[in-house]
Design brief:
The complex is a heterotrimer of chains A (508), B (346) and C (174). Chain A is built from 20 helices and 2 strands. Chain A is mainly alpha-helical and 508 residues long. In chain A, helix 1 crosses helix 16 and helix 13 packs antiparallel against helix 14. Classes of the chains: A mainly alpha (508), B alpha/beta (346), C mainly alpha (174).
Chain lengths: 508, 346, 174
């Protein structure tokens, strides 16, 4: 195994392979920054170019491109508040408020550096799981996946902010939205309002882009200020990047935990990065010393979203490599690349073709480091953008919203979904309802139902007794309920100082 | 059982090709076609080749492979467009509603679309008989796979089953579901279809791990798992042997117990033979359809394209427009019994 | 910045918006619950659970709002909300304090952009919107606006149509 590891490294360090990886990274860099125009479409567009490549070259090119999109997606999230990818929504929550405070450099430094660390973690998970990959994936089934969605849903409470009832209501609304579409049991169209477009459910990318990006663009149009502050005086020096890196190092437990969450959830088909980001974010909030800063520009929130995003890529390769099961839309395209490269995903990837698998590990790490280095080089001009007059950015940002939504299924209905989501997002901010529980429930709802029915159809009620399920229940109690109880006890001790907060926005 | 060798043979400076190709993107590659006739409808124009699914997956791969060659033969720019939605119904409805002036062609999951029409499924707003049929690109006969060391070792075991055979599927109306329930109707074995899997891969994994008994999926998507030794392909629902699955028996080798079963089997084989078709909007004028069909034959005859797809284990298996049209008509003319069985899968 | 609709600071005012939103959710969940009751057990189980839960929560929230309102009415009127030191930068603050005209203008521009995208397509709308928005809303010079518009249009066309051949909103006339 060690031999294969070194062997694969020498394969990656071929001039041609590295060159292809750099081209891939460059493409992925741009694509990641543009919302909506995400990994899957670009990968499919680039697929024909790989017909004449060697396997390692194919993955250097495609995988290099793919992993970079999640890194640079965070840049758009932090700078403009518009998620560059569906998996970069959590980065807007705290990264964007920091940018608006003029701390864009620090936020970007933190998100990029934690991305790099996260990618290393994810790659290590992929490499380390090689001997145990198959039994582990086979031992996990719908019951475990269902329990993971339940774990995810419990984070609704942590992500609700100060009004838990509102959070739960938003989550219920999210679950309702998740129900839209053809049900997988009887093929009945549910809440589709006679629109075929809705049969496949509400598309995630337009939803995320609208929910998080719409409000920010509108805000810019209303305030007419630059993103970072009031007037147009661009600071001579962009500072804080180094501080962001130091923040990341200081918060290493957040990086580690978020990376672990990312690579674990990345392994579950159907869950993937759009869920992992919020679980990591919620976890960071729970563990944080200042949870009240979350949503207002907490650096540990930024770090968590950066790390989780890139750790998930390594994780999502696990089922793809070992069983040919795509972890998400992007890996589905990557799967075609296996066939083009003349490889069959499955056991042989872990034996005779082990060098290719390990080359992926190296590529994930290398591509991310190249991208992060490039991003640091481009940081200054990018951050300058946040200091120029807001209205100048408006045409550009509206384009990002429109195209980002449209590219989801090349239908104008995507744009309408985005606009509806934007309206919800604006209303949520205006009247102080939390957005995150809504999105989390949309993503988890449909999966939860599928896996619940599958668990029952496959195992009857016995699925409740599976050891891994019981283990997850215990974990749920430990991770979630215990800190909540402890905090409640603490707040009860220190309370009486803070009066019950008024929900209404009262500015006099 | 890797087929890396083939790829290596064709390897000729991948990077160089990529760079030139990227550079060439900027230039419009029109005007060099064989202009034997003066007025060609598609020549020099943009033609949309619609894939009714997201990128990735068999239909997308076939379409993207075909596009440049079809473009060359038409003298046009063939652009692949993904229009996912409602299974594949949204794009197929749109093609059916498009006019003859739209330069739009579509790759079609003909098995699924024809079944949807037979079952008068909700949302299917097209008539397979009305499409201007360009041809069949490839077969996609469903193949039943079981766990290598499970209770079922052959399709005969499945037929002889006393308790319900648990087939994994994504949902009602999917090809997986239809194949399983029609096979059960033909051979009279008890069946339970377990739905809710996120995709074919997930469904197959349930078979590998032993929580489901069997899974029916197109032969090309099953192939990888078979060569890997993860699953055993026990039957392929067609009457022509699949070259890459030489050891898998054909469904026609198993005699149904009843007369009705025999009739159903015939219809199933015809349905499964439909495979992956290319169609244009209804009512296309004769000369435009001929232009498309000629270009289709020209493109699918291209050695390079064939080698490329063979290398991906996704070979072409072409039927001409005329043959395909007749085949579609014969399937639509199915017996009421068959229609009834298909209806039960929705 | 014009601020017209300044909410009154008295706590006895009912939490009108939250009440309306919650009542709206009550109606939404109730309708969805009724719709779910027409489906078979397997297709309807999860929807019934979700909408039932949602309905209960929405009703609970309405009750809580009313109870709290009455309690607050009895108590002393509350002053300011906690921590608003950076208030004028907060998105919430901007949304709450932008005047009616600013709202109408912003929403009008957005509507114009997306209707344009639908009717005229991307390659017409993008430069046109950039030109008019910069000239008439951002009050930039004609030269600046024209250059911005031309560059936007050219970059979009080169990237999406020529290089990547990606699908963009085509408009109704194409």
């Amino acid at each position: 195994m060690g031999e294969a590891l070194l062997d694969s490294l020498s394969q990656v360090f071929q001039l041609q392979t590295l060159g292809l990886m750099l081209i891939g990274v460059a493409i992925g860099f741009v694509v990641g920054i543009l919302p909506g125009l995400g990994g899957p479409v670009t990968l499919a567009l680039m697929l024909p170019f790989t017909f004449s490549m060697e396997p390692v070259e194919v993955f250097a090119f495609l995988l290099g491109m793919l992993v970079v999109t999640s890194t640079t997606g965070d840049i758009t999230s932090v700078l403009f508040g518009i998620p560059g990818e569906a998996t970069s929504a959590a980065a807007t929550l705290d990264g964007y408020p920091m940018t608006r405070r003029g701390e864009g450099g620090r936020a970007l430094g933190a998100v990029l550096f934690s991305s790099a660390l996260g990618s290393v973690f994810g790659a290590l998970v992929l490499a380390a799981s090689v001997p145990i990959i198959r039994p582990v994936v086979l031992a996990l089934g719908p019951p475990e996946f269902f329990m993971l969605t339940v774990v995810g849903l419990t984070f609704v409470v942590a992500l609700s902010g100060k009004n838990v009832v509102k959070g739960l209501l938003m989550a219920a609304a999210g679950l309702l939205v998740a129900l839209i579409g053809i049900d997988s049991q009887e093929g009945i169209p549910r809440y589709t309002m006679d629109q075929l477009y809705l049969w496949d459910g509400i598309p995630l990318v337009p939803l995320v882009v609208g929910l998080f990006g719409g409000a920010e663009v509108l805000q810019l149009m209303l305030s007419r200020n630059s993103i970072a502050g009031t007037s147009g005086d661009v600071p001579k020096r962009i500072t804080g990047v180094g501080q962001g890196i130091r923040d990341t190092l200081r918060h290493w437990p957040v990086v580690l935990r978020s990376s672990a969450i990312g690579s674990t959830i990345g392994m579950v088909p159907g869950l993937g990065g759009s869920v992992a980001q919020f679980i990591a974010y919620g976890q960071a909030r729970q563990a944080s010393k200042n949870p009240q800063l979350f949503g207002k520009g907490a650096i540990d929130g930024v770090i968590a979203s950066g790390a989780v995003n890139n750790a998930k890529d390594g994780g999502s390769l696990v089922p793809t490599v070992a069983f040919g099961i795509p972890g998400g839309a992007a890996t589905a395209v990557l799967l075609s690349a296996f066939l083009i490269a003349g490889l069959d995903p499955g056991p042989e990837m872990l034996t005779t073709e082990l060098d290719v698998t390990f080359s992926m590990v190296w590529i994930v790490v290398l591509a991310n480091f190249v991208a992060v280095a490039a991003a640091f080089a481009l940081l200054r001009p990018l951050i300058r953008l946040t200091f120029i007059s807001g209205p100048l950015l408006v045409p550009f940002l509206l384009l990002l919203l429109g195209l980002g939504a449209y590219s989801s299924s090349n239908s104008f209905a995507d744009v309408l979904v985005m606009l509806a989501a934007a309206a919800i997002g604006v209303a949520c901010i205006r009247w102080d309802w939390p957005r995150v529980p809504f999105l989390l429930a949309v993503v988890l709802g449909a999966i939860a139902e599928r896996y619940l029915f599958l668990s029952y159809s496959l195992f009857g009620w016995d699925w409740l007794l599976r050891p891994t399920v019981i283990g997850l229940v215990v974990l749920l109690l430990l991770v979630f309920v215990v800190p909540a109880l402890r905090r409640r006890r603490q707040t009860r001790a220190t309370t009486a100082t803070t009066t019950t907060t008024v929900d209404e926005d009262v500015h006099s | 059982m890797s087929h890396r060798r083939l790829t290596s043979l064709r390897r000729s400076g991948g990077a160089a090709l990529l760079v030139t190709a990227l550079a060439a993107c900027g230039q419009n590659g029109g005007g060099d076609g064989t202009a034997d006739q003066a007025s060609k409808y598609y020549e020099g124009e943009n033609v949309d080749l619609v894939v009714p699914y997201d990128p990735g997956g068999g239909y997308d791969v076939y379409a993207r492979a075909l596009a440049p060659y079809l473009g060359e033969c038409l003298g046009a720019e063939v652009v692949v467009r993904n229009e996912p939605g409602a299974g594949s119904l949204l794009a197929t409805n749109a093609t059916a509603a498009a006019g003859p002036d739209d330069r739009r062609i579509q790759i079609l999951n003909s098995v699924g679309a024809t079944s949807a029409q037979l079952a008068s499924a909700q949302g299917a707003q097209f008539d397979m008989a009305e499409f201007s049929v360009v041809g069949r690109l490839a077969t996609a006969a469903d193949t039943v796979s079981v766990a290598v060391d499970g209770g079922f070792q052959s399709f005969q075991d499945v037929i002889d089953a006393e308790s319900p055979v648990r087939f994994a599927a994504t949902g009602p109306g999917s090809n997986e579901y239809i194949a399983a329930s029609v096979l059960s109707a033909i051979y009279g074995f008890p069946l339970e279809v377990i739905t809710g899997f996120g995709g074919s891969g997930e469904a197959r994994l349930a078979v590998v791990s032993g929580s489901a008994d069997a899974h029916a999926s197109t032969w090309d998507s099953t192939l990888g798992a078979v060569t890997n030794g993860e699953v055993r392909a026990v039957v392929v629902a067609t009457d022509e042997p699949v070259e890459l699955l030489p050891d898998t028996p054909l469904v026609t080798e198993f005699e149904p117990g009843t007369e009705e079963g025999k009739g159903l089997l015939e219809s199933l084989v015809a349905l499964e033979t439909l495979g992956r078709g290319i169609v244009a909007p209804p009512g296309l004028p004769e000369e435009r359809l001929t232009e498309l069909r000629t270009a289709f034959e020209c493109a699918t005859g291209n050695q390079e394209l064939n080698a490329q797809l063979d290398g991906q284990q996704r070979p072409l298996d072409v039927l001409s427009g005329e043959e395909y049209e007749a085949l579609v008509a014969s399937v639509l003319d199915a017996s009421p019994e068959f229609t009834e069985v298909v209806k039960d899968s929705f | 910045m014009k601020t017209t609709d300044t909410p009154t600071g008295t706590a006895t005012r009912p939490p009108a918006v939250d009440l309306v939103l919650s009542l709206g959710l009550v109606a939404l969940f109730a309708t969805a619950f009724l719709a779910a009751n027409e489906w078979s057990v397997r297709a309807g189980l999860f929807p019934r659970m979700v909408t039932g839960l949602g309905l209960a929560l929405a009703v609970l929230h309405v009750v809580l709002l009313l109870v709290r309102w009455r309690a607050d009415g009895a108590a002393e009127p509350t002053g300011t909300v906690e921590a608003d030191d950076e208030a004028d930068l907060d998105v919430e603050y901007i949304f709450a304090h932008a005047g009616g005209r600013a709202w109408a203008a912003a929403l009008g521009w957005i509507a114009a952009f997306f209707v344009g995208l639908y009717v005229l397509g991307l390659f017409v709308t993008a430069p046109l919107f950039a030109l008019t928005y910069l000239r008439f809303s951002a009050h930039r010079s004609w030269t600046f606006s024209v250059i911005y518009a031309v560059v936007t249009g050219a970059v979009l066309y080169l990237a999406f149509e020529v290089a990547l051949r990606l699908q963009v909103p085509p408009g109704l006339f194409l």
